[in-house]
């Protein structure tokens, strides 16, 4: 399974390319409600 998260416009642009790449399968789209988004901070480089 491959998940892609982007704007609706970008997903619509992607679908024709997926159709050419995939011989069989399912492409599903859904609207999501983001409850929480967080991003981990990069760790500082080790000293020594």
Verbal overview:
The structure is a single chain. The chain starts with 7 loop residues before the first helix and ends in a 27-residue tail after the last helix. The longest helix has 14 residues, at 8-21. 29% of the residues lie in helices and 0% in strands. It is mostly helical and 48 residues long. The mean pLDDT is 87. The chain is elongated, with a radius of gyration of 17 Å. It has one helix at residues 8-21. It has one helix and no strands.
Structural class: mainly alpha
Strand tally is 0
Mean pLDDT: 87
* Residues in β-strands, percent: under 5%
Largest sheet: none
What's the end-to-end separation, in Å?
42 Å
Question: Roughly how much helix do the residues carry, as a percent range?
Answer: 25-40%
Ranges where pLDDT stays below 50 over 5 or more residues in a row are none
> In sequence order, what are the helices and strands, one letter per element?
H
Tally the helices: 1
Radius of gyration: 17 Å
Instruction: Sum up the overall morphology in one term.
Output: elongated
């Amino acid at each position: 399974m491959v998940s892609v998260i982007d704007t609706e416009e970008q997903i619509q642009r992607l679908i024709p390319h997926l159709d050419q790449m995939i011989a069989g399968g399912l492409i599903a789209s859904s609207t999501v409600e983001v409850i929480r988004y967080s991003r981990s901070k990069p760790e500082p480089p080790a000293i020594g």
